[in-house]
Amino acid sequence: xxxxxxxxxxxxxxxxxxxxxxxxxxxxxxxxxxxxxxxxxxxxxxxxxxxxxxxxxxxxxxxxxxxxxxxxxxxxxxxxxxxxxxxxxxxxxxxxxxxxxxxxxxxxxxxxxxxxxxxxxxxxxxxxxxxxxxxxxxxxxxxxxxxxxxxxxxxxxxxxxxxxxxxxxxxxxxxxxxxxxxxxxxxxxxxxxxxxxxxxxxxxxxxxxxxxxxxxxxxxxxxxxxxxxxxxxxxxxxxxxxxxxxxxxxxxxxxxxxxxxxxxxxxxxxxxxxxxxxxxxxxxxxxxxxxxxxxxxxxxxxxxxxxxxxxxxxxxxxxxxxxxxxxxxxxxxxxxxxxxxxxxxxxxxxxxxxxxxxxxxxxxxxxxxxxxxxxxxxxxxxxxxxxxxxxxxxxxxxxxxxxxxxxxxxxxxxxxxxxxxxxxxxxxxxxxxxxxxxxxxxxxxxxxxxxxxxxxxxxxxxxxxxxxxxxxxxxxxxxxxxxxxxxxxxxxxxxxxxxxxxxxxxxxxxxxxxxxxxxxxxxxxxxxxxxxxxxxxxxxxxxxxx
Length: 546
Description:
alpha/beta; 8-stranded parallel beta barrel; 19 helices; 18 strands; 38% helix; 20% strand
């Protein structure tokens, strides 16, 4: 039985940026693109070039490897042509493969918000689509307020669709902008739209204001649309958008959908789902939702009692899908079960091969669980996991030992009488038996420690010259000024690879230093792999003294 192709469109970097308290830097956007590519979505909408410096810089080059890189913006303004509209031209001249233009499908919104007429707006849709298509872009039209507009004036809403398609749009997306449409209404209205436009040219963009965004997306798919838009972890304005982390496994694992529709999501993509969801939350510096469907820490957790007893006989009694299918794990409170499969998958990412019955795997699993209980989280710090795994397995080379470090912050008056803050760090290292001491000043204790740590690594100095710290995040794990603190450090090198390391301590400086230490260690692991193959040198396991 042939399956119909269903396309997944991610709008985290644009709609998600409208979430209260969320701001994406350029570095954030580049890192999130990598997570989305790991997820396997078809389209990635990166933002609005020209709207702000970050988005403009982001669209100066193509950022995706496989997904269709998409820019978002508005159709042309009334009173000028698309060829002379700076907003339209900003999208057309960007590095995006596709352009997604927003238009209003509710006549009331056209008159109220735009101060225009429906005739002018229809003409603007046609001119904008023709201009972008002529420039070689794949064109999408997001019809804002479509469902409310259809209820108020179906003739105008349908004209928006047919106009866009006739002008050359690949997709017309039906938006439930206010998030108040019911699934039954979505199904009914999409059914009426299909009399005027084919389903393989239609998409759905639901908001979650009634908690039904995923249900509305599924209703639209069942009715006939073949593109669905959403965000990672349901981010978005007000109550958020359709959560792709919930929607994707439903489409891929539930027979009602999996037997009818084909997506670009493979079993390997699904097994990364929990990691991607949690790594994204770490990027946002927020705690993952424990009860999130499929990926939450409690999604497959059961307390002791009759449920646990039944689970031990047959997991399907209280699990609708196997947790490992989405990269999660089973947790029965009396006896923690699962973890090995996840661990083997994580090890394979770092070219570490172990058999499932290898006793070292049990030791590594116990170590990971013990450290996570103390506040570590390796979903968002894969490089630290690689370092930890090699340390526990006894295969981590001894690049350098840290014997001592000190950071000092002093506020004083300079020679001009101005109040200044001076930060100095001292780091004492031992490299291949040689004791080295470095001193550096920075714009804070972490920056000073970073500079001092990398100032002199003896024989390894040349191998970290292209290493730089690009992001630094702090999360307080419990309350009070003496709280346990988690620090995430993101680094990159000349190859363009980025990695994240983690440190946890009641002392924020100690947590930061641990993350910095592991970042350098990971960088040396990268370079050491090639060199060891030629020199056949055997190292002893590394340690931090003290």
